[in-house]
Amino acid sequence: MTATTEINNIISKENLVYKKTDVLLDNEMHYCPGCTHGVIHKVIAEVIEEMDIQDKTIGVSPVGCSVLAYNYLDIDWQQAAHGRAPALATATSRLMPDKYVFTYQGDGDLASIGCAEIMHACNRGENIVVVFVNNAIYGMTGGQMAPTTLEGQVTATSPYGRDCATTGFPMKMSEMVSLLPGTRFVTRQSAETAGAVRKLKKAIRKGFENTREKKGLSFIEIVGTCSSGWKLSPTQSNEWMKENMFPYYPLGTLKDE
């Protein structure tokens, strides 16, 4: 057996251990090294392929770092105005109830300018999935303080650290929406280890399954990193997240009806 024949045998379909999902396009991602967005995109794409719903899924992209998400996932997309993704997803889901509609939003988009939209969509129990990426900072616009920025955290607009006496306290969005009667599944996950990614994938799949079963709104928060905004290396960012964000934003499922 030649070396070429042996290699071809190893990479044959029946011997494949892992294959990149076809839902994830081959475009080079624009995200910074260590950014959590790329991992989340990959997980969503894998779930869509495994559930065989690629032609039935519609994503609503936000304004923020992930505004170009439509360049990476080969599904139908709509682009919402800043913070308005839940409103657009509401209309889409109601007009096309057989579709799997999800929003993909950061903390500035969802918890600041879009706070009214997300709260009312959750309260109404719209049959959508909300993927909320919380990295405690505005990433795309230069690292400003976000509603989820931690107390004392240094940002471009809080150079001496967030002062809760003047700016209020970090908003715990998952805890807030879990109290609303329209939410059926509320969970907070992460994606910094292989084990965390598996849990995240299970949560995202459950969200889409809830859509299929017309159960109402699934809210999936992902605590992520922003190496550029935090001015840390990818490795340092993961450690900072574990030491500082996880205690305030504890991982786990808050609601599952």
How would you characterize this protein structure?
By secondary structure, the protein is an alpha/beta fold. The chain has one domain: 3-Layer(aba) Sandwich (Rossmann fold), CATH 3.40.50. The chain is about 40% helix and about 15% strand. The chain is built from ten helices and seven strands. A seven-stranded mixed β-sheet has the order 2-1-3-4-6-5-7, with helices on both faces. Helix 4 crosses helix 5. The radius of gyration is 19 Å and the shape is globular. The mean pLDDT is about 95.
- What is the SS-derived class? alpha/beta
Assigned CATH class:
Alpha Beta
What's the SSE pattern? HHEEHEHHEHHEHEHHE
**What percentage of the residues does DSSP assign to strands (E)?**
15-25%
The side-by-side strand order for the widest beta sheet comes to 2-1-3-4-6-5-7
Number of domains: 1
Question: Which CATH architecture would you pick?
Answer: 3-Layer(aba) Sandwich
Secondary structure: number of strands:
7
Terminal CA distance reads 57 Å
Oligomeric grouping of the chains: single chain
Mean pLDDT score, rounded? 95
CATH fold type = Rossmann fold
Largest sheet: 7 strands, mixed
Number of helices: 10
CATH superfamily: Thiamin diphosphate (ThDP)-binding fold, Pyr/PP domains
| Morphology call | globular
InterPro entries: 2-oxoacid:Fd_oxidoreductase (IPR051457), THDP-binding (IPR029061), TPP_enzyme_TPP-bd (IPR011766)
Keywords: Oxidoreductase
GO biological process, one term: cellular respiration
GO molecular function: oxidoreductase activity, acting on the aldehyde or oxo group of donors, iron-sulfur protein as acceptor; thiamine pyrophosphate binding
